[in-house]
Amino acid sequence: MDNKKKDYKFFAMVSRMRYINRWELMRNTIEENIAEHSLDVSIIAHALGVINNVYFGGDVSPDKLAVVALFHDVPEVLTGDLPTPVKYYTEETRHAYAEVEKSAVSKLLRKLPSEMQDLYASYLDASYVDDYSKKLLKAADKISALIKCVEEKNMGNKDFIKAEKTTRDYVEKMNLKEANYFMEHFFGAYSLTIDEQSETESTFYSI
């Protein structure tokens, strides 16, 4: 046990997620940072785990899904949010970025006490969950992105039209029953106003 007084910087660096904006190549009506995105992904991933267990007889851990989702973009406090078209432009760029991300994870883990590093490593590389859960995490990530695309398009931002189609096609091609269930029963409500969501004639903010 390391009892020496030392200021470890890991959590302070994680808190900087709110400074890293997503969708940098596109005009945004409302900017989204990776902290906001990670919370959305965590909530959706948890929901997919619950759906798996309640409706499809599964045994994944929604809690583990939520934790890994919270940390899935943490390396970007060092790498920034590289746009998907750039990240996957060629096999070489995909591999190069994977190496950069791996290096960022190692650097971040060194900012923790040694006794905590293995556990947080499993959050950052998603080894904390099984392979099927990793598919649910990817689906949650894409659904969160799709929600953003639809919100931007509904506000008249044409920059997100192609991104919406590409992301929707990706979710559909994953053909995950949990994601399909979420899309069928929950996704549509994201386009509703607060009045429509709360099913009242006026919001609770009204006088």
Q: Count of DSSP E strands?
A: 0
Q: Looking at the structure, what is the overall shape?
A: globular
Unreliable spans: none
DSSP helical segment count: 11
- Give the helix/strand class: mainly alpha
Radius of gyration, in Å, reads: 19 Å
Q: Could you tell me the strand content as a percent range?
A: under 5%
User: How much helicity do the residues have?
Assistant: 55-70%
* Arithmetic mean of pLDDT: 92
Topology pattern, helix = H, strand = E: HHHHHHHHHHH
How many strands, which pairing sense, and closed or not: the largest β-sheet?
none
The termini sit apart by 57 Å
Can you give a write-up of this model?
Helix content is 62%, strand content 0%. With 207 residues, the chain is mainly α. Helix 2 runs antiparallel to helix 3 and helix 8 runs antiparallel to helix 9.
Short description:
This protein has helices spanning 10-14, 34-56, 62-71, 76-79, 84-87, 91-109, 114-124, 131-154, 161-174, 177-185, 194-198. By secondary structure, it is mainly alpha-helical.
SSE map:
Elements: H1 10-14, H2 34-56, H3 62-71, H4 76-79, H5 84-87, H6 91-109, H7 114-124, H8 131-154, H9 161-174, H10 177-185, H11 194-198
Features of the shown structure:
0% strand; 11 helices; mainly alpha; 207 residues
